[in-house]
From TrEMBL:
Transmembrane segments: none
Name of this chain's protein: NAD(P)-dependent oxidoreductase
Domain 3-hydroxyisobutyrate dehydrogenase-like NAD-binding: 170-291
GO molecular function, one term: NADP binding
Active-site residue list: 176
Classification via PANTHER family: 3-HYDROXYISOBUTYRATE DEHYDROGENASE-LIKE 1, MITOCHONDRIAL-RELATED
Gene3D superfamilies xrefs: N-(1-d-carboxylethyl)-l-norvaline Dehydrogenase, domain 2 (1.10.1040.10), NAD(P)-binding Rossmann-like Domain (3.40.50.720)
Keywords: NAD, Oxidoreductase
Organism field: Brevibacterium casei
Annotated InterPro entries: 6-PGluconate_DH-like_C_sf, 6PGD_dom2, 6PGDH_NADP-bd, HIBADH-like_NADP-bd, HIBADH-related, NAD(P)-bd_dom_sf
Family membership: Belongs to the HIBADH-related family.
Amino acid sequence: MSEHVTFLGLGAIGLPMALRLHAAGLTVTGVDPFPDPRERAAAAGLTTAAQPLAAATAGTVIVMVADGAQLEAALTGDPSTDTPGLLALMPKESVLVIMSTVGPDAVRRAAESAAAHGIAVLDVPVTGGIAGVKSGTLRLLASGPPAVLESRRSVLEALGTLIDCGERVGDGQAYKAVNQLLCAVHIVAAAEALSLADRLGLDEESVLAAMTAGAGQSWMLGDRGPRMLEGLEAPVASAVSIFVKDTDLVAEVAADLDIDLALLPVAGRKFAEAADAGLARRDDSQVIRTYDPK
């Protein structure tokens, strides 16, 4: 296969992912329509472009955009700005890797469109955030044809650990939906617990240390708890806006299945409250401010 990778989407997590591929020795072209992320990428040594023309010679195209609408736009292009779509550019037998969290239906529609152009699709949403990319502990929830997945294993494993979610495109997104349900609920539960400790007049740092050593521990409490106590200037590893989007996405999946997820609406409401309070771009740990704004 061509060792050239076109990486579309140089946002908060996309840029470090593209740079990690570059550091692994792959030829990477980072694509983003906005100049600021392109400038940051170029400053870090990455070849950049505003349009995905490099996809015409790429063996692998990775898409890390915000939502399903952006995925569709990336595939079909935008005639109003003369931006070509990936499906018109990518050569036959190349592989489109969708790493955005967009839900099973969006990825399956993309796979159908790509198949008509002779392009294979891998559904590989990720979990672990920016910290996971930088530490090499990102987990890639991969689904798709086994032979195609195997052919791109070296590219994907440069980003983290592959979790085989099965042959059906869309099942990676289904795994991610389960993951995001757990993450959203656990973050809000951690925020609620530390807020209760504060209202009880306890030292929150002492409570956090005690809880992370006991039966109430969760990965999210240990990871987000310190940033909750750090306050609004906590470094952004994953923004509030991501969980606004993802709780809505999980709710759509649940509605299609007619399953009552009792805790999801509570978590979704708290993230929405945080976004409405002007915290959309802050670290998701700052959902704690909806309990006791400081």
